[in-house]
Design goal:
The chain has 224 residues and is mostly beta strands. The protein has 2 domains: 79 residues, Immunoglobulin-like (Sandwich), CATH 2.60.40; 93 residues, Sandwich (Immunoglobulin-like). Helices cover 13% and strands 40% of the residues. It has 1 helix and 16 strands. The protein has a 4-stranded antiparallel sheet with strand order 1-3-6-5, with no helix packed on it. Strand 7 and strand 8 form a beta hairpin. The longest helix has 29 residues.
Length: 224
């Protein structure tokens, strides 16, 4: 009887070792060993920017830490917003370092820009460049597939709030430059005698707040 119990105990111990080793192997297989990469920078490397501009970096995966030479970094998942630490960038290349959440080091990356005077001018809506134009009247509703709002300069961020006929009917897409496109949801289409009102907010790449915040247009009356 004692011998039988001893054999049973040995079999149980062996099974436990097998389970532990097997689980350990799975953990190793699932471990992230891929180095993250810098996917894009806005403004793009090589561009001319104001000396006090912010730079938005997008990475291939969620980052645990990011550092940029001469910059102060605000990290949000795969995105890092970088402002010049002293209020203005110094000339020369900007080295970007960091690690993903698994601790893998970022593949070597650097940015170069041509610097111009610091920007203190607030951005506005470029009324004539918008589609439909800001303030337009008598717009043919069937001609509007989406709404494009264009700003006077490159924006670091832009948001829109809809009211009235468009409340809950649009989804905004910001291109990271000067244009915010509002696409209609669920097959929604404009009709006659609609008054469209959108409220905008945002800042340019230097942090200056948008001053003109209202975008409106009206569609044409019904034909008799």
């Amino acid at each position: 009887m004692k011998k039988l119990l001893r054999i049973s105990a040995l079999m149980t111990a062996a099974l436990m070792v097998f389970v532990i080793v097997g689980c350990g192997g799975d953990d190793e297989a699932d471990k992230d060993t891929t180095a993250p990469t810098l996917v894009s920078a806005s403004p793009a490397s090589g561009a001319e920017i104001a000396a006090n501009s912010q730079i938005v970096l997008t990475f291939s995966e969620k980052m645990g830490s990011v550092s940029v030479a001469g910059g102060t970094v605000t990290l949000d998942g795969k995105t890092a917003t970088v402002a010049p630490a002293g209020g203005a960038w110094a000339s020369g290349s900007l080295s970007v370092t960091g690690t993903d959440v698994a601790g893998n080091a970022l593949a070597a990356a650097s940015l170069t820009y041509t610097l111009k005077a610091a920007d203190s001018v607030a951005p506005t809506i470029d009324d004539a460049a918008c589609s439909p134009k800001n303030g337009a009247t008598g717009v043919e509703p069937g001609s509007v597939a989406d709404i494009k709002i264009v700003f006077s300069e490159t924006m670091g961020s832009a948001k829109v709030e809809a009211a009235g006929d468009l409340d809950g009917k649009i989804t905004p897409e910001f291109d990271g430059d000067k244009t915010l496109t509002c696409k209609f949801l669920g097959g929604f289409k404009l009709g006659n005698e609609m008054e469209i009102k959108l409220t905008l907010s945002g800042k340019d790449s230097a942090g200056n707040a948008l001053t003109t915040t209202s975008y409106t247009f009206t569609t044409m009356a019904k034909e008799e």
